[in-house]
Design goal:
Low-confidence stretches: none
Radius of gyration: 26 Å
Shape: elongated
Number of helices: 4
Mean pLDDT: 81
Distance between the termini: 61 Å
Order of helices and strands: HHHH
Helix content: 55-70%
Number of strands: 0
Strand content: under 5%
Structural class: mainly alpha
Oligomer: single chain
Number of domains: 2
Length: about 100
Amino acid sequence: MGKKRLVEISRKTQQRAMTTAYAKLKEQMQKDQEGARKRGATLSPAAGLCQSLDKTREKLEKADNTNWSDEDRLIVNDSIGRLKDTIEIFITPPSEGGETEAPPS
């Protein structure tokens, strides 16, 4: 329990106010503790990357660019282009000679 929260509770002048504040604190602590339990197992780096990529894909699918300015479109297109380049490098890593390998046919 946070010392600050306990001091706030003790400053309440009425017994009912103290009891209510303490009950709220206990409830919040219980929610925080349950939230920590719900996290589950830690994902492997590959699974975490897949999860992030899936979320990004979903955001792109849901994005409505009809009201975007030309500048916004350029910024997003540039960012997507850099992401695409990074993905291409990831999929086809450079060979030992420094050149990228041809993708399999």
